Amino acid sequence: MDKFRVDIANCYGIKKLEHEFDFSQGDTKIIYAPNGTMKSSFANTLDDFSKGVMSKDKIYTDSIPLRKINSELGEEVNIDSIFVIKCKR
C-alpha cells in the first residue's frame, strides 16, 4: 500500500478532514504542528480505528461521526497497519 486516504468528521473536535497520505517514499509519517491544531484528535481517531472502537466527539455528542481510512484501492486499511505513539509530558 503506497497511499491511504482519511475522511474524518465529528471525531474529537475534528469538524472535517480529508487527506491522502503518500507512503511511496517511506513507511513513516510524522505530524508536527503548533499546539491546538488537532494532532491529538487525529491520533485519538487513528488509535480508535486500530482498536476497532468507534470515534466520537466528546463535546458535540449529538454529532454523527464519520471515519473512513481506505487504501488507494478504496478498501478499508488493515487495523494492524496503524500504529499510534502518544507522548505524555
Would you kindly provide a brief summary of this structure?
This protein is 15% helix and 21% strand. The chain has one helix at 39-51; strands spanning 3-9, 17-22, 66-71.
Which terms would index this structure?
15% helix, 21% strand, globular, 89 residues, single chain, 3 strands
Describe this structure in words.
- The protein has 1 helix and 3 strands; from the N terminus they run E-E-H-E.
- The N and C termini lie far apart (33 Å).
- The longest helix has 13 residues, at 39-51.
- Strands 2-1-3 form a 3-stranded antiparallel sheet, with no helix packed on it.
- It has 89 residues and is of the alpha+beta class.
- It is 15% helix and 21% strand.
N to C succession of SSEs? EEHE
Major β-sheet profile: 3 strands, antiparallel
| Beta-strand fraction estimate | 15-25%
Secondary structure class reads alpha+beta
Distance between the amino and carboxyl termini:
33 Å
Low-confidence stretches: none
Q: Provide the gyration radius in Å.
A: 13 Å
In DSSP terms (H or I, runs of 4 or more residues), the helix count works out at 1
| Widest sheet: strand ordering | 2-1-3
Percentage of helical residues?
10-25%
What's the count of strands?
Answer: 3
Shape: globular
Mean pLDDT score: 90
